[in-house]
Amino acid sequence: MSLFTTRYERASFFDEMFGASGEFRPHYRRLAERLDTLSEGEFNQRRAAVDLAFLRRGVTFTVYDNTEGTERIFPFDLLPRIIPAREWTRIEAGLIQRLTALNLFLHDIYHEQKILKDKVVPAAQVFSAKHFRREFMNFSVPRDVYVHICGSDLIRDHDGNYMVLEDNLRCPSGASYMIENRAAMRRAFPNLFESYRVRPVEGYAETLLKSLLHIAPAGCDHPNVVVLTPGVCNSAYFEHTFLARQMGVPIVEGRDLVVRNSCVYMRTIGGLVPVHVIYRRIDDDFLDPTVFRPDSVLGVPGLVGAYRSGNVSLANSIGTGVADDKVIYAYVPKMIRYYLDEDPILPNVKTYLASEPADRKFILENIGKLVVKSANEAGGYGMLIGPASTEAEIADFRAKVAAQPRNFIAQDPIQLSRAPTWCDGSLEGRHIDLRPYILHGEKITVTPGGLTRVALRRGSLVVNSSQGGGSKDTWVLQGDD
Amino acid sequence: MSGPTDRAPARMLLHLIHRTTFVYGGDARDSFNEVRLRPCDDENQACRQFSLRVSPESAVRDYTDFHGNTVHFFDVPEGHARLVIEAESEVETVPDASRAAPAPVGFDALAASPEREMQAEFLADSRYVPFAPEIWREVQDVLSGGRGDVWGDAVRLGRHIHSTFKYRPKTTGVTTTATDALKLRAGVCQDFAHVMLGMCRCAGLPARYVSGYFLNVDRLPGEVEASHAWVEVFVPGQGWLGFDPTHNRSSDERYIKVGVGRDYADISPVSGTYRGAPTLSLDVDVKVSQLNSLTAVPG
Amino acid sequence: MQTTPKAPAAQRSGPMLSRVAHSLYWMSLYIERAENVARLLDVNLQFLLDFQGLSESLPQEHWGSILASSGGAELFAELHGEPDSQNVPEFLAFDQRNPNSILSCVLSARENARMIRDQISSEMWEVINELYLFLRARNAAEVWRAGPYEFFQQVKRYSHQFQGLADSTYPRSEGWDFIQFGKLIERADKTTRILDVKYHILLPTATDVGGAVDTAQWHAVLRSASALDAYRRYYVHEILPWKVADFLIFSDTFPRSLCYCVGRLDGYLHRILGDSPARPRAPAAVAAHDLLADLKSRDIEYVLQMGLHEFLIEVQKSLDRIGDEVVQTTMFFPADPEPEEHQHQQTQQQQQ
């Protein structure tokens, strides 16, 4: 086996490609056979071609270390992650169930608050959530859909069971990389696609547009949809323009929009053009300086008033961030039981809440062995991986948790699954997760695949792009191999 | 004023005008605003009439916010050098004689009350009332004699503030927090209310900020006629009861309540943004007067 | 190979965003301006190399007139005092305090291009970026040492590359109209200024007219507009002042002549503004129409009678008006890309 010259270390982790006794899992066999026929030189050639293509197409994200942002390619690993149909069926059902429950939860807490009155979720947790938007009580959102685009991150434990690590309900990103990665793989391994039957992801933009059109204000024959971006300085700017272009809709910044008579318009050279649906990639806080942060220059004054008047629809709706909160995450299984009367298909990772006295005691005593996370940070920041941290870091976190228990949760470290990744000339196992993209239009659909993120540094568990992560293409098969 | 026993006590009918005038050093445009000026309806008052006038004229819409306050919003797109917002209302208040005196309720009743979870809102930090050890310490001092009933303790805290703080306009500003005011031991009603909130919350008493006005027959030296702020404390079985630390008394029939929230940030009477020239001046003119008191209908 | 599905027919990208039009216009205008300054400096440096020995005051006069006609005289005087062959080129090429220096123009062009990255092809962006990096890497002292000629050639080359890429990669949509409009309005304006240079040079004495210096100066005027060869083909014989003016104002075939530029500009203006019921005969369209009619109906006799300088100033004013009008009508933003100041309503304490 030319590419597998060095012995591949499976260790005790669940490996995507190799089974317990080192044999190829059935759905990876064809890939292995194909790789077998490639020399290292040929493989590297394809890698280089793909990287160059990414650079040329500008598939980048921006990292800001000083005022000048540097654009980086999101490192891409050529070895795909393959998921057989039977596994995916379960994942899909579980995600649909989960998003259904989350949507019902959001509707409930912004209306009758039954789940709080029935004490299934403590009211205190909701009211103290950083992104609970009181301004949105009793607000009716179009079609009662709060979350139109959701990215729930999945991991596998050492037995290979899929679990949900967190839900991202505000502005989940990465769908553009999912599409670009697929295009790259087609260029690199055209024949492989023919031998496998991989379900396509290219329909994402079309489904997204349909979901957006679905929530257009009533009485509108030809709704105008726009993508609202914070601008070139935002690290995901590439994705904003990419999706806008794929959907064939304009991309605008806050200063391109203006509100008149509670209706939203775009400033164009032909005058003011009405806007009916906004796919906004700006966080609630910055959306409207009249209602939220007054110092925001990214937003549109009066936008919330127009939203309230029903003249414009927003995706995702305002106020979804409360379910993004890692403390609220812990209650999702209860939400599924409460609203749907079903058992969760996809389990949560066991979570300890620092706000609960018994859990807090446990966390403070065992912090060195736990993964501790801030309730509301993203990108892998505000996180402590106990077993991999210094005494000083642990002490620091212990103090933070004691001071602000509401803002911290802890989890047992999961032995994240690994997948073979090309690392500096040899195949090595690296930890991965999966972010599928769930769209809620007339019905909820999960794009088959999603973004598999890889922690590129040996031994690292952090997969985020800003901290040394990369990605793989994700293949969901029509069949099981 | 006692009357024949078969007549209910007379209600007070209060008339209120609150005018806010912004003058800009040039043109302002694309002005988007929210105002919380409409007196609410609750067990102690009913708002009989309300009108909101804006100049330059614009369409005004409204919604009800999280705390049940009515919020009006409007925008003025065209250039204008002044913005005048005038709210006029007639409010009928329940006479003091008809209001039940608070019955003593022990502190443990709070944890046992059915509204326990909802109280969390009003025990937590908020923008103007952060948790601070200094506040906590002072509360321990004031209540060092031992805890009494919920309302009684709240009143003790309120009276303490009244007697140890100085009412002094122009020493604090609209952004002054409870901890700032505590250091100065002086301020206006907004600050008195914030400090009392801090103290009640440290004592485990759920308390909320109340924005409104009152009919002022005796003025404190230097006191201006403006909008007023006081505090309401939650007493299980009796609801929210009001105390005014600036004037050292419970809120009574002279008080007109507009809205409630965690602190000033939740009920700011007028707020908004616009583009253009900086503001030259902001004038607020408030007048509260009593119309003829209604004679009650017998029976 | 599977292609990405087309967007549903219900939605296409509608009319262009004002902000994007604004950026395309300024990006194009600033690149054109940078190129013109480079050309102007190049030609006039060479001219002075040939003739400076002739009189003490020649360089100062000559540079003074360049500054006067390009509109930077006041600012220069504030910063530097007397002009010479060192400080004027520096001022016009590298000084960031001069908003019209080559460096300033390229910085502005790049800023505008960056804001509309996704609208222009990556090649267009790369060229502007390379020009920017090229300028950033040089400094004035190095340039003069190395020989300014190569430097100016490089600037011109980048500009031509940019225009060529725009021509071959930019779709012929509204955006294209704004790119061309910006370029042409700047080009027309520059032609008037190039012609005006001679006005600011002290009137030659009787013996100077037709002399070597005078002829060489008119030579330089033509070369500043890259018009020397074209002129010679047209007029074959000598270089006479009135013929140069005639050529640069009235030729309807030479790409940098006023008449030609305004003619094409008028065409793009009509496409940008359109003559629709919503916008009948916009002021800018009227102004352009009048200017073009003037240029088509007048001749050089008229101009000389009126006074070349006076005529050119009038044309500049018209062009300014047209430019401002277009920005006001289509862009809803002030010419300065800074957003208008954002204010909060003051809130008042509850005081009672």
What's the short version?
Chain A is α+β, with helices and mostly antiparallel strands. Chain A is 30% helix and 23% strand.
Query: What string gives the helices and strands of chain B in order?
Result: EEEEEHHHEHEHEEEEEHEE
What is the count of structural domains of chain C? Answer: 2
Beta-strand percentage of chain C? Answer: under 5%
Query: What is the rounded distance between the termini of chain B?
Result: 18 Å
Shape estimate of chain C: globular
- Give the biggest sheet of chain C: none
Which CATH architecture of the largest domain in chain B? Roll
The percent of residues in helical segments of chain B reads: 10-25%
The secondary structure category of chain B is alpha+beta
- Tell me about the biggest sheet of chain B? 7 strands, antiparallel
Integer count of domains of chain B: 2
Please count the beta strands of chain C (DSSP E, at least 2 residues each). 1
Q: Distance between the terminal alpha carbons of chain C, to the nearest Å? A: 74 Å
* CATH class division of the largest domain in chain B: Alpha Beta
The total beta strand count of chain B reads: 14
Say what oligomer this is.
Answer: heterotrimer
The fraction of residues assigned to DSSP E strands of chain B is 35-45%
Question: Could you report the average pLDDT of chain C, rounded to the nearest whole number?
Answer: 81
Mean pLDDT of chain B: 88
Would you give an account of this structure?
The complex is a heterotrimer of chains A (481), B (299) and C (352). Among the domains of chain A are: 93-154 and 202-340, 3-Layer(aba) Sandwich (Rossmann fold), CATH 3.40.50; 351-411, Dna Ligase, domain 1 (2-Layer Sandwich), CATH 3.30.1490.270. Chain A has 14 helices and 22 strands. Chain A has helices spanning 29-36, 40-57, 85-109, 114-117, 123-127, 175-188, 190-195, 204-214, 237-247, 303-308, 326-329, 332-340, 357-366, 391-403; strands at 60-64, 69-73, 76-83, 149-156, 162-168, 225-229, 251-253, 257-260, 263-268, 271-275, 277-280, 313-315, 351-353, 371-374, 383-385, 408-411, 418-423, 426-435, 437-440, 444-446, 451-455, 469-476. A five-stranded mixed β-sheet of chain A has the order 3-22-21-18-17. Chain A has a four-stranded antiparallel β-sheet with strand order 5-4-19-20. In chain A, strands 7-6-11-12 form a four-stranded parallel β-sheet. In chain A, β8 (257-260) and β9 (263-268) form a beta hairpin. The longest helix of chain A is centred in the N-terminal third of the chain and has 25 residues, at 85-109. The radius of gyration of chain A is 23 Å and the shape is globular. The model of chain A has no long low-confidence stretch (mean pLDDT 88). Chain B is an alpha+beta fold and 299 residues long. Chain B has two domains: 12-94 and 268-290, Immunoglobulin-like (Sandwich); 101-251, C8orf32 fold (Roll), CATH 3.10.620.30. In chain B, 18% of the residues lie in helices and 38% in strands. Chain B contains six helices and 14 strands. In chain B, the strands form three sheets. In chain B, strands 1, 2, 3, 4, 5, 13 and 14 form a seven-stranded antiparallel β-sheet that branches. Chain B has a five-stranded antiparallel β-sheet with strand order 11-10-9-8-12. In chain B, strands 6-7 form a two-stranded parallel ribbon. Chain B is globular. The model of chain B is unreliable at 1-5 (pLDDT under 50). By secondary structure, chain C is mostly helical. Chain C has two domains: 17-169, no CATH class; 173-334, no CATH class. In chain C, α6 (122-137) packs antiparallel against α8 and α13 (258-273) runs antiparallel to α14 (283-297). Classes of the chains: A alpha+beta (481), B alpha+beta (299), C mainly alpha (352). Chains in contact: A-B, A-C, B-C. β13 of chain B pairs antiparallel with β1 of chain C, so a sheet runs across the interface.
